[in-house]
Amino acid sequence: MSDAIVQVSQASAEGGSAATQVLSSAQELSRSAGNLRREVTEFVARVRAA
Q1: What is the value of pTM for the model shown?
Q2: Alpha-carbon torsion 34, 40, 46, 49, what sign?
Q3: Eight-class DSSP state of 1
Q4: Sequence spans of domains, the chain
Q5: Residue 48: enclosing H or E segment and its boundaries?
Q6: How far is Cα of residue 28 from the mean position of the Cα atoms in its chain?
Q7: Around Cβ 41, how many Cβ atoms within 10 Å?
């Protein structure tokens, strides 16, 4: 019984670690998308002004 509890505990910790990594990646992707959006907007504005 205690081996099963240890395995569940380890799996839970690994799942939490994976979730943290996914969250971090999603936040970085969101920042990158915001930067890209801003750059495209600026580019289009420069093209229209030319």
Answers
A1: 0.67
A2: negative
A3: -
A4: 1-50
A5: helix 2-49
A6: 5
A7: 10
**What is the Cα–Cα distance from 20 to 24, expressed in whole angstroms?**
6
Give the three-state DSSP class for 50.
Answer: coil
At 25-48, the pLDDT tens digits run 999 999 999 999 999 999 999 999
Helix (H, G, I), strand (E, B) or coil at 41: helix
Cα distance between residue 19 and residue 27, in whole Å: 12
Token pair 């969101």: residue = 30
Dihedral (Cα; 21, 24, 29, 35), 10-degree rounding: -160
Paired tokens of 43: 């580019």
